[in-house]
Amino acid sequence: MRLSQMLFVTLREDPAEAEIPSHKLLLRAGYIRRIGSGIYAYLPLMWRVLKKISQIVREEMDATGAQECMLTQLQPAELWRESGRWDTYTKAEGIMFALVDRQNRELGLGPTHEEVITTIARDMIRSYRQLPLNLYQIQTKFRDEIRPRFGLMRGREFIMKDAYSFDVDEAGLKQTYHKMHDAYCNILRRAGLAFRAVDADSGAIGGSGSQEFMVLAEAGEDEVLYTEDGQYAANVEKAVSLPLDAEPSPFQTYEKRDTPQTPTIDSLCQFLKCSPTQILKNVLYQVTYDNGMNVLVLVSIRGDQDVNEVKLQNELVRVADQYGGKAVIALEVPNEDAQKKWATKPLPLGYIAPDLSDDYIQSSKTLAPKFYRLVDQTAVELTNFVTGSNESDRHVVGANWGDPFTLPQTVVDVRTARKGDRAIHDPTQLLQSARGIEIGHIFQLGTKYSIAMGATYTNEQGEDVPLVMGCYGVGVSRMAQAAVEQSYDKDGIIWPVAIAPYHAIVVIPNVSDADQVAAAERLYAELNQAGVETLLDDRTERAGVKFKDADLVGIPYRIVTGRSLQQGKVEVVKRASRESQEIAIDEVVATVKQWVADALS
Ligand code: ATP
Ligand code: MG
């Protein structure tokens, strides 16, 4: 392609809308254009990158035996009602764009395709002889993200590869899942990205085991905790660990003490000269279920630890049916306004004890009459601890479970693991922390959707049993940007060769020099013929502008038909290392072709 004939517009300045380097660079280099909030057009260079990533994904999926198909983006609400996710996706998470057609039928714009694929499987899979089966598609997804940002990283319209597998049993699913895990590693390795597979929370998609594939980069929205021995890596949302041991309590006898102005753990520790590990912290949450029911939740946890709201939410989903609900619509620490709606009297905030009386809760149809009391594992072992007294400016010390407090029935792990904690598999290993961009997520769904939607098959014994499912997503457009976030310098993008829009760019420093033009035209034609995807910068711009643009756009190899032509040579520069060499014109094609081949192998 000739730059003179391309839609090729680069910007010298960083666009104000962009916060992270990859977003700035993709806008500046003319890869993407913002059309609306979280909505981006992929310009010709970007489309080539996306097609390359898609092709790598396609080849690796095909190699596992999965088959490509194309599912519908318009999805009837009935299907989502059958799975029980319509309200969660349109109201609770509110992530699905929903619409009403002219016949007054409700539809959603596909944020994911479990419902559509399960309805197909229900109709078409009859026998164990048809299994295992794995179907995938590469398609635009729609999600009304609360905070669309960072360009393609979190768009409201983006490209995903999603695959759905069907197996006869859990063992079959595990095998398929394993194959997909390996395929994902291949995809990321081939695309030239540094990544880590981590244990993950399964979120609203549901199911048992899941792993995320994280591209490591400072701008990542996720925190990954891992051990140096390579045995453990997890998203902080899911991570488990051994906290530091609690220090023995100095308070041997139970008593109530004046502790003026100590509503925080820090202020209390200073006042009582004790360690936060000797304190029992009681954190109040308010959860709203999809049936409108509100429950006040009191979580008791060791003072030096923080509540992990993802783990807490999972626990609250687990007990949803006790409150007549299915899904959690909101989970928050109730602020003053929220408290006014249910509290019979002002709460002793900062001084709450685990036995805070249920009398604080007004009687109401939409309020559970009692606190749901939970205790985190870290707090179960505490003895002679310090905690609130349910009175402002006073705490109790030397308290114990059994006397005077009753240990809540539900013991859970709702603590946030953190850097420096000891690993469970080997306590000599300490957790390290890194930032990651989630590129892929693979799930063992099990029978959640097949049971809900009645997708069964006849097994070898002639019984009708639910299909065992898995699902596997890769953010194709997010991956393109993550590659940039992982690989750039002050001058621009440095594409891995495998996903660069073009392999090489031939730059003519001076288009009014006939020799330069002739040599460039020849190389341009021969390189393309040899399978080296090549651009020709034949614009009537100054050489300096052309070099800057080539650096910005990030094409791996730059060939300049400049001064050295007189010696029958051209300058060839590698974008990544900036290494420059003069190569005889006749050898350029073979040399660059070899470099590309080496980079792709
Ligand atoms: P996140 O936690 O980042 O919102 P998710 O858990 O919602 O991601 P999945 O539903 O597992 O994501 O989707 C599979 C993949 O699709 C993700 O791993 C990610 O790469 C990509 N993806 C998800 N949401 C977006 C988005 N809004 N913009 C671009 N890519 C996305
Ligand atoms: Mg999401």
Bound molecules: adenosine-5'-triphosphate, magnesium ion
What is the residue-mean pLDDT, rounded to a whole number? 96
Fraction of residues in helices?
25-40%
Quickly give the CATH architecture of the largest domain: 2-Layer Sandwich
Helix/strand layout:
Blueprint: H1 21-28, E1 32-36, E2 39-42, H2 44-63, E3 67-68, E4 74-76, H3 77-83, H4 86-92, E5 97-100, E6 106-109, H5 114-124, E7 133-142, E8 157-167, H6 170-190, E9 195-199, E10 210-216, E11 222-226, E12 233-235, E13 255-258, H7 265-272, E14 280-289, E15 294-302, H8 309-318, E16 328-332, H9 336-342, E17 372-376, H10 377-380, E18 385-388, E19 394-401, E20 404-405, E21 410-412, E22 432-446, H11 448-453, E23 456-458, E24 464-466, E25 468-475, H12 476-486, E26 488-489, E27 492-493, E28 504-507, H13 514-529, E29 534-537, H14 543-553, E30 557-560, E31 569-574, E32 580-584, H15 585-600
Helix pairs in contact: 1-12, 2-6, 2-12, 13-15
The protein binds adenosine-5'-triphosphate (ATP) and magnesium ion (MG).
The site of adenosine-5'-triphosphate has 16 residues, from strand 8, strand 22, strand 25 and helix 12.
Short characterization:
With 601 residues, this protein is of the alpha+beta class. It contains 15 helices and 32 strands.
Summarize the structure in words.
With about 600 residues, the chain is α+β, with helices and mostly antiparallel strands. It folds into three domains: about 290 residues, BirA Bifunctional Protein, domain 2 (2-Layer Sandwich); about 160 residues, YbaK protein; about 100 residues, Rossmann fold (3-Layer(aba) Sandwich), CATH 3.40.50. Helices cover about 25% and strands about 30% of the residues. It contains 15 helices and 32 strands. Helix 1 packs across helix 12, helix 2 packs antiparallel against helix 6 and helix 2 crosses helix 12. The radius of gyration is 29 Å and the shape is globular. The two termini are about 25 Å apart. About 40% of the residues are buried. The model has no long low-confidence stretch (mean pLDDT about 95). The protein binds adenosine-5'-triphosphate and magnesium ion (MG). The site of adenosine-5'-triphosphate has 16 residues, from strand 8, strand 22, strand 25 and helix 12. The site of adenosine-5'-triphosphate (ATP) has 16 residues, from strand 8, strand 22, strand 25 and helix 12.
